Amino acid sequence: MVFNSVDPCQKFVFEGDIIEFVHTFNYLGILLETTLNLDSAVEHLTAASRRSLFALNRRCAELRIMDVKLRCDLFNMLVCSTTSYACEIWVDSKKIEAIEVVYRGFLKSLLGVRKTTSMSIVLVELGKFPFEHFAWGQALLYYNRVSIVTKDCILGKAWEAQLAMLVMGKKRWAGSVKKWLLQNQPQEVTGFLPLA
Q1: Residue 88 has what pLDDT?
Q2: Cα–Cα distance measured from residue 135 to residue 22, given in angstroms and rounded to the nearest whole number
Q3: How far apart (Å, rounded) are the C-alpha atoms in residues 56 and 188?
Q4: pLDDT class for 25, splitting at 50, 70, 90?
Q5: CA separation for the pair 196, 177 (Å, rounded)
Q6: What does the pLDDT read at residue 5?
Q7: Long-range contacts from 143-149, C-beta under 8 angstroms, 24+ separation
Q8: Over the stretch 129-162, which tens digit does the pLDDT of each residue have?
Q9: Would you say the C-alpha torsion 98, 138, 54, 75 has a positive or negative sign?
Q10: Which tens digits make up the pLDDT trace of 162-195?
Q11: What percent of the chain has pLDDT over 70?
């Protein structure tokens, strides 16, 4: 896959074979587009989460599992693993709200409350946080891991490129993390290398 505005008529050859030009490619479960927009990947994960949630609810009904804690644990293991797949890279997507809707729907149905019930009450009752908090936590853990890798490896070189693009003012993943930190944890931004 080529990540730029390449002429679709241009041919790429690898070991004598012409490589097919595609607009989307599924790589390790994440839908990549030539536009570098991850919204379709999040939509794909949202649909997969809905299917997983439907299967979980159906199986819990068959087995008459009513225990709230057990159902929350099952949700975390069976649905959140699908929902949060690679959330470190797409957490800043505008489509994260669709995943929040799946998460909120599960929690409200678990308590048997109306759809109009305040989500704050539901979260407090179950001792939960919004999904976005979990996703940003994962992104920050990933940021901590990549920020300390050596510059010799490919991940270190990719991190250096992210920081260089951030300094040039281009919106990239590192910029989204910096923006989130400035809004939510301003005391942490002092350790963020490029403050420009």
Answers
A1: 84
A2: 29
A3: 39
A4: confident
A5: 14
A6: 55
A7: 143/174, 143/177, 147/193
A8: 999 888 888 888 888 888 788 778 888 888 888 8
A9: negative
A10: 888 877 877 777 778 877 877 877 665 555 544 3
A11: 89
Asked whether 2 and 23 are in contact (CB, 8 A), the reply is: no
Tell me the three-class secondary structure of 66-87, residue by residue.
CCHHHHHHHHHHHCHHHHCCCH
d(CA 100, CA 122): 13
Residue type, 17: D
Residue 133 is inside which H or E element, if any? Answer: helix 131-146
For 94, list phi and psi in degrees, rounded to 5.
Answer: -70, -20
CA distances from 77 to 4, 38, 80, 186 (A): 37, 24, 6, 32
Alpha-carbon span 82 to 92, nearest angstrom: 18
CA distance linking residue 131 with residue 100, whole number of Å: 6
- d(CA 172, CA 162) in angstroms, rounded, equals 7
Cα 195 to Cα 179: distance, rounded to the nearest angstrom: 10
Indicate the angle between helix axes 39-62 and 96-111, nearest 10 degrees. Answer: 20
Reading the block at residue 90, the tokens are 């797409």
Q: Are 173 and 92 in contact (CB under 8 A)?
A: yes
